[in-house]
Specification:
heterodimer; A: 289 residues; mainly alpha; B: 73% helix; disordered C terminus
């Protein structure tokens, strides 16, 4: 029983992390119907910013985390204004090629600047070790991830459901043309959301260095995971991707624990099966109109 | 003249052999004589060209965006490797066809998954299939050799006459011959009514279905065919390099392949071959400058191509040939922009 709880707990932590990493992508796909395979590159950028600040400049971990968010968001905003916005009306093939190009560039650039080996972020001692919770060992770091990501998810849900910006965003996702007609500045909403999504990815990247491992190949390795979250979860709400990430996280951890020899086989099979069963995702429609 | 015969005439004109095409193949053969010391890289180009031809069939003609075409390449590569390693079929040409057929079977089975859904789902499913096969190959490392790959493959002489040499001379001519034969087949297919119906599907699946084209069956057929081609390309890879490792399934291989086709332009068969030549030259050039980071420049090329716009790029590239033809031929330009993939 203990191991079952531990797997569940690790799976939830992993899933929450994936959600924070991928929810920006869900919006990109949902709002602009843009296939952005380079989303992982922003996560990697955040992770490396955090690593440099903590390891080399000696900043506290909890100060570096928000900075990872800000750095990735700024990079995202700059790239959106400079490059991405020219491609919204292009075909999916063009978007795929463009973002693969970006991934290749980011991989080689980070390899060049930081070296190709895996990087670890020095954690404060308060986050190391485990807490004993009714006989179940709970990793402090994972607990922190669940707390942070849970709060973020709640915050996102509140922003989407309660604020004016949230209603603009939902309107733009549902029908961009009608939203423009109603006087909503869709490109602006999109630019802001894109930057915010990149920032979240950066934060996720910084948090995931400990669990997923951070090296220059991060964007390629986890691209499929982000895409699974989005395609399986759909993009009509954030609950879809959230449930999909939890499912993926628990499935992956459990798969690795119970059938370690099958490796990532379990996840890919489940994904293909779900996409065959419901091509538009488990929860509502996807971005593709 | 009635409309159907008009269409027939037009299609017939397009299907006719053009002097440029004959020149292209003569040039390919001449390369062997001009650069006798560079057989290995030329074999690589031919192999990549064949692989790109396979992607062209589904992307350029049928409009299926695939991010996992390396799946079939890998299946072909491992099949050829295993056949040779265990001495089941030692004759390379027969083994090649056998490997192609196995890849074809995999392609047929997975085509049902791929034709469902729209672009994004297709991207995911094709990518997923390639990753799945890679995971399988890693899992059954007792058969595939895992990360070390298949080792100690020894190829028998082609047709029992020509043994593979270390300079890759036989390998090159063998690959070129295979490419030429398969190219003829592809050329025949895309100019047939079947090929024309594929274009109709690519331009507008709904309309194609309305005029009576069985969309799904056609897509399954061409996907299966493309898998056969990719399998042959993979088998050629194993036979000419005498190795097969896990990276035959790698995502980078599929992504590079897209770049090859984009450089050359899809939808007129030569795009893959021209793209392969340019891609390999670029790769050589960038590896000379920065051996470890050539991927950065390849990525930059991709980004620039997309930002400039593919149609515009081809217009620039074809400006000089068109000018020459206009000067000397007097007529209107014969070399035209390949059908852009804008969908």
């Amino acid at each position: 029983m203990t191991s079952l709880f531990t797997i569940l707990f690790d799976g939830v932590a992993y899933g929450m992390l994936l959600f924070v990493l991928a929810c920006g992508l869900a919006v990109t796909l949902g709002l602009m119907n843009f296939v952005n395979l380079a989303h992982g590159a922003f996560a990697m950028a955040g992770g490396y910013v955090c690593a440099v600040l903590v390891n080399q400049s000696g900043w506290p971990f909890f100060v570096a985390l928000p900075l990872a968010f800000v750095a990735s968001a700024l990079i995202g905003a700059a790239l959106e204004r400079a490059l991405y916005r020219h491609l919204y009306t292009r075909s999916h093939l063009d978007q795929v090629l463009f973002s693969i190009g970006l991934v290749f560039m980011s991989v080689a650039a980070v390899d060049y600047i930081m070296g190709s080996s895996r990087i670890f972020i020095k954690l404060p001692s308060a986050l190391e070790g485990q807490i004993d919770f009714f006989g179940v060992g709970i990793g402090r770091y994972r607990l922190m991830i669940i707390v942070i990501c849970g709060l973020l998810t709640l915050g996102l849900q509140l922003i989407l459901a309660r604020t004016r910006f949230g209603s603009r965003l939902r309107a733009a996702v549902d029908d961009p043309r009608a939203a423009i007609g109603l006087g909503i500045n869709v490109p602006q909403v999109f630019a802001f959301t894109f930057a915010f999504g990149c920032g979240l990815a950066g934060l996720g990247g910084a948090l995931s260095a400990e669990i997923l491992g951070l090296d220059p190949y991060f964007p390629l390795k986890f691209m499929i995971y982000f895409l699974i979250v989005v395609t399986v979860g759909g993009s009509s709400s954030i609950t879809g991707p959230f449930l999909a990430s939890l499912l993926l996280g628990i499935g992956d951890v459990a798969g690795k624990y119970y059938v370690p020899k099958m490796g990532p086989f379990v996840i890919y099979t489940i994904m293909i099966a779900i996409l065959i069963w419901r091509p538009n995702g488990l929860f509502g429609r996807t971005a593709t109109r | 003249m009635t409309a159907p015969s008009d269409v027939g005439l037009y299609a017939g004109q397009h299907a006719r052999w053009h002097w440029g095409e004959i020149a292209f193949w003569c040039l390919a053969l001449a390369c062997a004589l001009i650069f006798p010391s560079r057989f290995l890289i030329m074999t690589e180009i031919v192999r990549l060209g064949l692989f790109a031809l396979s992607l062209d069939l589904i992307l350029g003609y049928a409009g299926i965006v695939s991010l996992g075409h390396a799946a079939f390449f890998g299946v072909g590569a491992y099949c050829a490797g295993l056949l040779a390693l265990h001495g089941i079929i030692t004759e390379p040409v027969v083994a090649l066809v056998a490997a192609g057929l196995v890849a074809m079977a995999v392609g047929f089975l997975t085509s049902f998954l791929v034709i469902r859904g729209v672009d994004l789902t297709r991207l995911m499913v094709t990518l997923g299939i390639a990753l799945l096969l890679e995971a399988l190959a890693e899992r059954y490392s007792n058969i595939t050799g895992g990360t070390d790959g298949l080792q100690g493959i020894e190829m028998a002489p082609v047709l029992g006459l020509f043994a593979f040499d270390i300079f890759g001379k036989v390998g090159f001519f063998y690959s070129l011959a295979i490419l030429f034969v398969l190219f003829l087949l592809a050329r025949r297919i895309v100019h047939s009514p079947f090929g024309l119906s594929l274009r109709a599907i690519k331009n507008n699946p709904l309309r194609a279905a309305a005029v009576g084209v069985p969309v799904n069956r056609r897509l399954i057929a061409v996907y299966t065919l493309a898998a056969f081609y990719a399998g042959i390309a993979g088998a050629l890879f194993t036979q000419t390099t005498a190795l097969a490792s896990l990276d035959v399934f790698a995502f980078e291989r599929s992504a590079d392949l897209m770049l090859v086709l984009v450089i050359g332009g899809g939808g007129y068969l030569y795009g893959g071959l021209i793209g392969a030549v340019i891609f390999k030259m670029l790769q050589e050039f960038f590896s000379d400058i920065t051996p470890e980071y050539w991927q950065f420049w390849i990525g930059l090329v991709l980004v620039v191509i997309v930002l400039v716009g593919r149609a515009r790029m081809y217009r620039w590239a074809l400006f000089v040939p068109n000018l020459i033809i206009r000067q000397f031929g007097g007529g209107k330009a014969i070399v035209t922009i390949p059908e852009s993939d804008a969908s």
